[in-house]
Amino acid sequence: MKARRRRLSVLFGGVFLALLAALASRAAPRTDAPVAEAPPNGRVASGAVTEGEPWSGEGVAGGAGGVAIEDEGGHPGAAAAGGESREDDPGDPREAQTGGWMARVDAFFAKWLVEPLGAVLLFDFGTERLLGTKVPLIVLWLLAGALFFTLRMGFINIRAFWHAIRLTKGDYDDPDEPGEVTHFQALSSALSATVGLGNIAGVAIAVASGGPGATFWLILVGFLGMSSKFAECTLGQVYRKVAPDGTVSGGPMHYLKNGLAERGWPRAGMILGVLFAVLCVGGSISGGCAFQVGQSMGLVRDLVPWLQGREWIYGLAMSVVVGIVIIGGIRRIAATAEKIVPLMCVVYVGGALFIILSNYDMILPAFGAIFREAFTPDAAYGGFLGVMVIGITRAVFSNEAGIGSASIAHAAARTDEPVSEGIVALLEPFIDTVVVCTITSLVIIITGVYVNPEYARFVQDNDGAALTAAAFRTVIPAFDWILGVAVVLFAYSTMISWSYYGERCWTYLFGPRASFSYKVFFLCFVMLGSIVTASNILEFANMMILAMAFPNILGAVILSGKIRRVLDDYWSRYKGGQIELRRKTS
Amino acid sequence: MPWLAEKTVVVPIDFSDDAFAALSTAREVAHESTALHVLHVLPILEPAEPGIMWHTVDDAGRRQHATEALGEELAKRGFGELTVAIRFGDPGHEIADYAEEVKAALVVVSSHGRSSWQRLLIGSVADRVVRLARCPVLLIRR
To answer: How far apart are CA A307 and CA A35, in angstroms?
Structure first.
């Protein structure tokens, strides 16, 4: 009976992929279509953002998120992200091939979903009229949350930093405590979803559109985000459920539901928990999936021009390699990719440091420009507030602090001290934003590609990945291919991680039996990521990632008293030497 | 001779109070010579689950944990020694498969009373056991 079920699953999977391929080949342009007809940079409704609309570009979740409406002219306010939806994109031949149905569905999304959601998320309190720069609600919300947690937790991001490193090293690990993985392993799993395209492409866009000064705000928000991450991951541990078989499940949907019920607001907790889960599913199929395929394909297609007009082949290949892991259960591939990603990170950071050090005389002037232009920026970059908003937004998109997704992975850590995992988690924005994003930023500034007329096209199109590749090329000509491989691997590991986050939320809503339907749904979006040009459909799903911050930060603020109590209890025991050290260090 | 004498009865347990109430009912209707089998079905973990990714969680360990937890819970509720089985997969199918394997004369299963929208979307374990099992099923409604 089991064998029959397995055979049926394989058969179903095969038929499903064949259908997708058939649909895709019909949707994609013919292979003899002139290359010149492809959209600028071969981008597929992704990554190209308008100046002044930084929330809509590359880089949510370090590669998750950020599917945006293309605006070839780069004119502020011309994109749908600001609430003005685009009905179609006559410049893309693939859209013409997909026929009118996609345009009609896209128009429906624009009118009934993107505009209302954008009106809330991107509400600017009239700042555009008064100050000349949009300061969207969602950016204020995330920044206010990070500031609140930094103050409420007594600058935990600074005072617990060294302890976080020792916890991650395993100095306090106890194999008999409940949970699945060590602190280090939980941190690595969470990082695999955040480190990625946002660090490569998103930062380049920040510098290109906000100037060197944006880096200052990026670093500052990285520091503040450490406190948000601490708060949400501590809550994830406090309210996690340990199953009879020793496995654990946690995350915002659990702490919102159970935490608020504990406060006497069970109905509010249930609503916020369900809202988070719905938004997380939406985020997983957009930023955690379609965006990854679209973005990585942009760079791969530059390296392999044969893919021009055959984008569906890349989408199908990605569907197969993701599908054999999440449906086929071939765990070794995902595990291997997860192991290679840290190596690629090291290679990427190593290459960047090589560029920085080979221009060592430019390091101090670069930092000088970062600090100087953070407060006295060029008006061309949108003035003081414009630069600040760009930096803040890119940082938030890159490290996910306040979004809540990472606490799903951190809940699995093996510990009976919830605060200890929260402290480990605060290293995540530090590594992702303060270290990796700053390094990318320095490469862009030192090589000067963001002001070089030769690369103006990338800046105009906000093609961050291409701009970073150009920066690397100025010193290491062969780095294109390494970057291409890194981008594909980052995209792949991010998709696997986000499929897990989405699946957890889907089964939270519909029960474990519904897991299979989510995976099929997810694979559809892997494929669609390579062929869909319907910007508003993807934009709507992308907004869902940002919207995850509303229930998450609201719930975490309400529960901040509890977080502070468990923190104070832990910290007094830690300072009193009562937290048992398992491994002596020099 | 009672119908259930020297026969096997399977009771799936998901650690809910309803499931243990179904076990009480099974014990009441069973004969002293009836073999009561308690079955717990564990889900197959996602490949991206941190414990799977890092090879720190495996089926043998999960089986051991679940067996111990079930033994403790049964003792706490005063059920004494029973045959305990742990399976992995979809609960509906696994319960039906196990009942067939041990040639069960009866499966006693509780119905959790899911909301109508959940039932519409995912059905229920009890529904599937009734549909798939090749022996009589006693459904305990709560």
So the answer is: 10
CB contact under 8 A, B65 and A180: no
Q: Which amino acid is at A36?
A: A
Give me the torsion for CA of A468, A118, A267, A282, rounded to 10°. Answer: -50
Chain B residues whose CB is inside 8 A of the A326 CB are: 46-48
Inter-chain contact B97–A2, Cβ cutoff 8 Å?
Answer: yes
Q: How far apart are CA A479 and CA A204, in angstroms?
A: 16
* C-alpha A64, offset from chain centre: 3
Mutate to test the interface with B, among A247, A248, A498 (most CBs of B within 10 A): A247
| Cα end-to-end span (Å), chain B | 30
Instruction: Note whether A181 contacts B65, CB cutoff 8 Å.
Output: no
**B21 or A107: which carries more pLDDT confidence?**
B21
- The pLDDT value given to residue A12: 54
Tell me the C-alpha distance between A248 and B141, whole Å: 29
B93/A contact by beta carbon, under 8 A: yes
* A332-353 confidence digits (pLDDT tens): 776 777 777 778 888 889 999 9
Distance in Å from the first CA to the final CA of chain A: 58
- Name, in order, each residue with C-beta under 8 angstroms of B79's C-beta and a sequence gap of 6 or more: B20, B23, B27
Per-residue confidence (pLDDT) for residue B121, from 0 to 100: 54
d(Cα B23, Cα B27) in Å, to the nearest integer?
6
Q: Is B118 on the interface with A (CB under 8 A)?
A: yes
Phi, psi at residue A178, to the nearest 5°? -70, 145
CB B84 within 8 A of CB B65: no
> Which residues in A lie closer than 8 A to residue B65 (C-beta atoms)?
244-246
A436, burial (CB in 10 Å: exposed 0-12, middle 13-18, buried 19+): buried
**H-helix or E-strand spanning residue A338:** helix A331-358
Distance between CA atoms of A207 and B107, rounded to whole angstroms?
66
Strand partners, A249: A241
Kindly state the tokens that stand for A290: 């379609």
Using CA atoms, how far apart are residues A386 and A380, in angstroms rounded to an integer? Answer: 10
The SS3 call for residue A309 is coil
Looking up tokens 């600028």 gives A40
Residue B128: which residues within 8 A CB-CB, separation 6 or more?
Answer: B90, B91, B92, B93, B96
- Tell me the ipTM for this assembly: 0.85
Residue A285, judged by CB atoms within 10 A of its CB (0-12, 13-18, 19+), counts as buried
Closest-CA residue of B relative to A190 is B50
Q: From chain A, pick out residues whose CB is under 8 angstroms from the CB of B61.
A: 246
Instruction: Count contacts between A and B (CB, < 8 Å).
Output: 97
Our CA angle for A415, A416, A420, nearest 5°, is 65
- List of E strands, A207-352: 241-242, 248-249
pLDDT tens for A267-304 read: 999 999 999 999 999 889 887 888 788 778 877 887 88
Judging by beta carbons within 10 Å of its beta carbon (0-12, 13-18, 19+), is residue A97 exposed, middle or buried?
Answer: middle
Of A330, A496, A511, Cβ closest to residue B122: A511
Element holding A425 (H helix, E strand): helix A418-425
